[in-house]
Design a protein that fits this description.
10 helices, eight-stranded mixed sheet, single chain, seven-stranded mixed sheet, alpha/beta, Metallo-B-lactamas, 374 residues, Metallo-beta-lactamase domain-containing protein, binds zinc ion, RibonucZ/Hydroxyglut_hydro
Length: 374
């Protein structure tokens, strides 16, 4: 019998009931807003079907609003304490030292709105400064329509309406690959409705075209787009790092099914790197080399099922092989389906690791938070 304590005492802090203020000084805070797969947990099919055995994980997640099995689409928030020691040669957006904590969001998928409602008030988040997009699948981008609700806002008196209204105080800085940006503009993806077909007003050029064509003016997000990786050039092994309000992010290419590339991110101090690897099936050699070279303290990685293989995502068996090679100090799983039950994860982990092997692998859950020095 192997034994793996999967409780995260000493590894993380939890987003508690009631309110937490925004971190004022000291370390930055990293929060996993979503740790589920695209279908989320509870999986809707498990709630409505009448045939077959009951899915206990989904039923428990549906019944218990505090369940650690309640999982939205993969997403991460960094409440970043800007450091003045970051590399000044990097492309820099905003001033690192203008007004304290920067809220940097990674992906905004289908469940983004509920993640905001569940966690932003408790975390003291009053607005988003930046959005980093890993790839253009629905579970990473379809929530960007709700960015309009997480802008910093300035109140003004509308005399005609006789009430206080709000306007966007500053744009959100968004970072993505060339391929994601092109698909946002609707110029590449002809098989599926592109983001611009659904949200044309989120692309500045399309906004102007719409207004010129006599469309009514809408209250929409103001987003400044930055292309930070040229994935269309498949000969590039490693894209250059970029800076988000002084936080240096090293993008890494990950194969997310066939030839489709999703971006992962390495960041943090050299002796305690953090790897955010949300959607991956295979690491190309240059990416694996970067992971092997890095001194990774915390690896956050895709794990769809326990042992069943999938074409576009890793399963826990594959994650275990990566952990054995890369040797991060601790590993936290995201992108998990109802295959994972928080209450019985020890047994699942025992089934895929060797006896006596301690790889420090833990299940993430929505709202898990880490104090990190960045
Ligand atoms: Zn289920
Ligand atoms: Zn995906």
């Amino acid at each position: 019998m192997c034994k793996h304590a999967h409780t995260c005492a000493n590894m993380c802090t939890h987003v508690k009931q009631g309110s937490m203020s925004s971190p004022k000084k000291g370390p930055s805070r990293l929060v996993l807003l979503g740790t589920g797969a695209s279908s989320s947990v509870p999986n809707l099919a498990c709630l409505i079907r009448t045939e077959g055995p009951e899915c206990t994980v989904c039923q428990e997640a549906a019944r218990n609003p505090l369940s650690r099995n309640l999982r939205g689409n993969p997403s991460m928030l960094i409440q970043y304490q800007p450091s003045l020691t970051s590399n000044l040669d990097l492309v820099r957006v905003g001033n690192a030292d203008d007004d304290g904590v920067k809220n940097i969001l990674f992906d905004a998928g289908k469940t983004f709105a509920s993640a905001v409602a569940r966690f932003f008030p408790k975390l003291g988040v009053t607005g988003i400064d930046a959005l980093v997009i890993s790839h253009d699948h629905a579970d990473a981008v379809l929530g960007i329509d709700d960015l309009r609700s997480v802008h910093y806002l300035t109140p003004y008196e509308d005399e005609k309406a006789g009430r206080t209204k709000y306007e966007v105080a500053k744009p959100i800085e968004a970072f993505c690959s060339d391929e994601t940006f092109e698909r946002m503009q609707g110029s590449v993806n002809v098989c599926l409705p592109s983001t611009s077909a659904v949200f044309p007003y989120l692309i500045p050029k399309k906004q102007i075209e719409a207004i010129n064509a006599g469309e009514p003016k809408r209250f929409v997000s103001r987003i400044n787009w930055h292309v930070v990786a040229n994935l269309s050039d498949r000969d590039i092994d490693v894209d250059p790092p970029f800076s988000v309000f002084g936080l240096e992010l090293q993008p890494v290419r990950m194969m997310h099914g066939g030839s489709y590339i999703c971006l992962g991110f390495l960041f943090g101090p050299k002796d305690a790197r953090i790897a955010y690897l949300s959607d991956v099936k295979v690491f190309p050699k240059p990416t694996m080399d970067l992971l092997l070279e890095a001194n990774i303290d915390l690896m956050i990685i895709d794990s769809l099922y326990i042992s069943e293989e999938h074409d576009t995502h890793m399963c826990l068996t594959e994650v275990v092989q990566v952990v054995r090679r890369v040797k991060p100090k601790r590993t936290v799983l995201v992108g998990m389906t109802h295959d994972f039950d928080y209450n019985t994860f020890d047994q699942a982990l025992c089934s895929v690791v060797d006896d006596g092997e301690d790889l420090n692998i833990h299940m993430g859950y929505d709202g898990i938070s880490f104090d990190v020095e960045l």
